[in-house]
Amino acid sequence: MATRHNGAPAETATGEAPGADGGARAATTDSDWPTIRRRTTVREDEAVLVIDKPADVSVVGERHDTDLMQLAKDAGEWLMPAHRIDKVTSGVVLLARSLPVHADLARQFNRRSVGKAYLAVVRNDGLPGAGPVLPEEGEVELPLSVGRKSRVRVAAPRESIRGEGGRWSVAEGDVLAKVRTYPSKTLFATVWRDERHTVLVVRPVTGRRHQIRVHLAWIGHPIEGDPLFDRAAAADGARTCLHSWQLAYDEEWADGERVTVSAAPDDAFWAPVRDRLPGTVDEVLERAARLLGRMERRARSGR
User: Fold this and answer.
1) CA nearest neighbour of 215 among 140, 123, 134
2) Could you tell me if residue 218 is left (phi over 0), alpha (psi between -120 and 50 degrees) or otherwise beta?
3) Residue 51: which domain range?
4) Band of pLDDT at residue 175, cut at 50, 70 and 90
5) What confidence tier does 303 reach under pLDDT thresholds 50, 70, 90?
6) pLDDT in the model for residue 194
7) CA 5 – CA 43 distance, rounded (Å)
8) In a domain, 273, yes or no
9) Per-residue pLDDT tens for 221-271?
């Protein structure tokens, strides 16, 4: 089966590929769908539209008709999200243009055949007795539950989390009783670190709401600017440094070709670490791509 990456990138109004000018996407606050569409389109064909969603814009379900799907509908374009990312998360979102395509994509997400990769900048707060350093590769397998005020949390006491050999888990006997729990698994690799921050490439195996954010925070490394765990950052309007970087899906409605789409984070994503990175952002992304490839090969081999 052939693989295609992005196809020909769509161009913005300035003639640049999305993400080429980090400030352009960050400034996308218009409620004008044609403008948003022009600035954020990564890939478009007769079946799908892939956009590079700005941070702090909802895909669907926002009050006051400000989510992207409502804006598109009001402009006369009917789109259906094949998946969702959080409002504070930026990056690649896959939108179907017909019910059959949406059904095909939904099946792929349900059977976990869609490749998903995120980038995150996390704080090195650490946990008591655990130290602040994340391993080169890690696996977080912590069940999630929904608590008071619909707040997503790990379905176990924090002190019951055990981190050994780069793997975090809880014993079955420590899982909270009498609540609905959701098995959840997140893989990550360390792209770069210093004493204050770590840049991770993250591969969520499952796709629970807030999964990456909760998993990383509960092992002592919250995402920089995440309002779930840093109210001061939210009050200051800080950027949440989580970005949907890549998606890979199969065109089952056509010839079955595997398509990979990607969008680089904007400048605001890198702001907490940019002056300390050892090289260029492109070099960091190249390392992230190598690490992601290694994680995917290991997953396919069952190691």
Assistant:
1) 140
2) alpha
3) 3-114+247-266
4) very high
5) low
6) 93
7) 10
8) no
9) 999 999 999 888 777 888 999 999 999 999 999 988 999 999 999 999 999
Residue 106, amino acid: A
pTM of this structure: 0.89
- Is residue 198 situated within a structural domain? no
Is there a domain that residue 157 lies in? no
**Residue 71 maps to a domain:** yes
- DSSP line for the chain: --EEES-SPP--TTS--TTSSHHHHHT---S-HHHHHHHHEEEE-SSEEEEEEPTT--SS--GGG-SHHHHHHHTT---EESS---TT-EEEEEEESSHHHHHHHHHHHHTT-SEEEEEEEEE---BTTTBSPPPSEEEEE--EEE-GGG-EEESS-GGG-EEETTEEE--GGGSPSSS--B--EEEEEEEEE-SSEEEEEEEESS--TTHHHHHHHHTT-PBTT-TTT-HHHHHTTPPP-EEEEEEEEE-TTTT--EEEEE----HHHHTTTGGG-SS-HHHHHHHHHHHHHHHHHHHHHT-
Number of folded domains that form the chain? 1
User: At 30, which CATH number?
Assistant: 3.30.70.580
